[in-house]
Amino acid sequence: MAFLIGLDEAGYGPTLGPLVVAATSFRFEEAGSPDPGDLWTLLSRSVTRQPRRGDRRIPIADSKVIFSPHKGLSNLEEAVLAATLASRPVPTASLPGLLGLDAVEEDSQYPWYRHSSCRLPIEGDLLRIRPRSDRLAADLDRQGGAYLGAHVLSIEAGEFNQGLVGEGNKSVVLFAAWSRLLRRCLDSVRDEPVRVMADRHGGRKSYLPLLRRYLDDLEPRRVREEVERSEYTLAGGRVRIVFQVRAETESLPVALASMIAKYVREVRMGLFNRFWASRIEDLRPTSGYPVDARRFLSDIRPSLRALRIPRARLVRGS
After folding, report:
1. DSSP letter at 80?
2. Contact 235, 187 (CB under 8 A)
3. Residue 229 placed within a domain
4. For the chain, what percent of residues have pLDDT higher than 90?
5. Mean per-residue pLDDT for 123-133?
6. Domain count, the chain
7. Would 165 be classed as within a structural domain?
8. Shortest CA distance to 178 belongs to which of 199, 205, 148?
9. Rounded to an integer, what distance in angstroms lies between the CA atom of residue 143 and that of residue 136?
10. What is the CATH number of the domain that holds 58?
């Protein structure tokens, strides 16, 4: 067998809300697994990278293509949940757990999550989601493959700021989270070939020092470092890692990871905005980006003081 893994993140730039990192895994029965970019063609009965109205296939592309705030969450949500159910045909009550969203109910450090529950879908329609999911599972089966699901990490402001102190800058905080997720994926694979693809991290070209810092036990080796593509191996060559400019347009697993990360962040930001709106009349929601974050923080200042929430638990540093 062979495995394809794609990683991407959402929320790297904002100062409010979580940084979310996601990894998706696909398994194929033949060791010579398809190129990640070929999956759009191989799975063309069930997925498309160019969403069109009325198309019954799952749109899988860069999350910026699938989601825009003024159109709402439904398109992104239906695509993410359809893919998720193709990995495990579970009751809808189990969906938050498969996307790392069950943890919001237990996170007592952040009052906007406390006692919250994520009932999915939020805006999407299960009557559209389940048939798409079934088609994707059948399409993968015809190709001797399977979608194994996603691993998701949501790094809230408190953890992010602690990481800044320990790691030095936010690009290294991101790589540390990326490495944790990759290790989770690799732990579920025994001795099979693995191909990993991820987007470039902040324009970085060389990743070998970071790979040695976080995955040194897997003996990382440099293959090549070029303008748009840097490639490495782990575990004696069994694992091949590629950092690629615009990887979400080159790799279906990366595109799906970008969508999942964006979806999880949007759900968490929805809970965040709902919490503050319940305390401040006519409060406009925020997406957390720096300029609007300053406006939002000014609007919630009286409530923030009353709740005695430390700034470092709310606002991410840079």
Report:
1. H
2. no
3. yes
4. 83
5. 96
6. 1
7. yes
8. 199
9. 11
10. 3.30.420.10
Residue type (1 letter), 86? A
**Minimal CA–CA distance to 133: which of 147, 152, 120?**
147
Q: Which region, left, alpha or beta, applies to residue 40 given φ > 0 means left and ψ of -120 to 50 means alpha? A: alpha
pLDDT at residue 31 in the model: 63
- The answer, yes or no, to whether the previous bond of 121 is cis (omega within 30 of 0) is yes
User: For 59-84, how does the pLDDT look when each residue is reduced to its tens digit (9 = 90+)?
Assistant: 999 999 999 988 899 999 999 999 99
Q: Do 61 and 51 contact (CB within 8 A), yes or no?
A: yes
**C-alpha gyration radius of the chain:** 20
Strands (E), the chain: 2-10, 19-28, 47-48, 58-59, 145-155, 194-199, 221-225, 229-234, 239-244
Interatomic CA distance for residues 270 and 122, integer angstroms: 10
Which of 292, 272, 289, 291 lies closest to 280 in space, CA to CA?
A: 272
The pTM score is 0.96
> What's the token pair of residue 223?
């293959």
- Which residue segment(s) compose the domain that 309 sits in? 2-313
What is the C-alpha to C-alpha distance for residues 11 and 186, in angstroms, rounded to an integer? 25
318 falls within a domain:
no
- Residue at 301 is within a domain: yes
Are 81 and 93 in contact, with CB atoms under 8 Å apart? no
Q: What is the DSSP letter of 238?
A: T
Select from 20, 13, 16, 2 the least CA-distant residue to 257. 20
Contacts of 262 (CB under 8 A, 6+ apart): 10, 20, 63, 66, 67, 76
User: Smallest Cα–Cα separation from 48: which of 135, 113, 117?
Assistant: 135
